[in-house]
């Protein structure tokens, strides 16, 4: 992804006087145009990179510039490796591993043991318990689509279970709440949307179809998936029985719980009202009761009754 590619380019240019854009593009499996955009980003961060013209030309650091090793402390380098290792648990590839190896190489041998202890202080694992085998191919395809500005097509199931064929311009991948999303411009809706990768199937990228990146509108720059999924927000009140306090704390946090005189716990939250909300409430089990709003109580009661009927109906003799 872009962060590790930028760091890799910087480290490479520190060790080599000059490198051609085509070589960088082949090394990182992106287009030459993407490499030049990366160079602009690095320049904007205050590291002067210049382009030399001619037969022996290429890209290099400005004459006399040197990135001091002390610019990054061991704690800062350990933080970078920890972040890369964490993201690799959900989205791992060889590029992550190569970058972590390069960062390890700049740590002095005398500090190696202490550096390893720093890496062991925190482990963040985003991978699901049931593995990530089906998700990884989608991530790899979509990363290629973002880097090369390629049109993507897929069948999508929304929160209400409605299926539709989508043709989109992929702009970026977002990891939010252990879930991967694609932020893309939907050609049918003519606006930016967020698509959950788990709801995609038959994903394909079209090599012969490219697009010009659009500037994200203000409302699409947030990493909050719910902000790009239009839905009405509903203020709900949930009452948890005393013995289900741990369940309320797990889902909402201890600060969200209000004690009630009978020993139960009250939680008030606003959620977009859709199929996900109904399934979520039903999944909390029989220790939870919806108090408000009345129409949501009726919906949950009706669905719970339908579930009960399925289990109570007589088996055929």
TrEMBL record:
Pfam families: HTH_11, WCX, WYL. It comes from Paenibacillus plantiphilus. InterPro entries: CBASS_pafABC_assoc_protein, DeoR_HTH, HTH_11, PafC-like, WCX_dom, WH-like_DNA-bd_sf, WH_DNA-bd_sf, WYL_dom. PANTHER family: PROTEIN PAFC, PTHR34580. It comes from the Bacteria. Gene3D superfamilies: Winged helix-like DNA-binding domain superfamily/Winged helix DNA-binding domain. Keywords: Transcription, Transcription regulation. Signal peptide: none annotated. The keyword Transcription applies. Residues 2-57 form the HTH deoR-type domain. This is HTH deoR-type domain-containing protein.
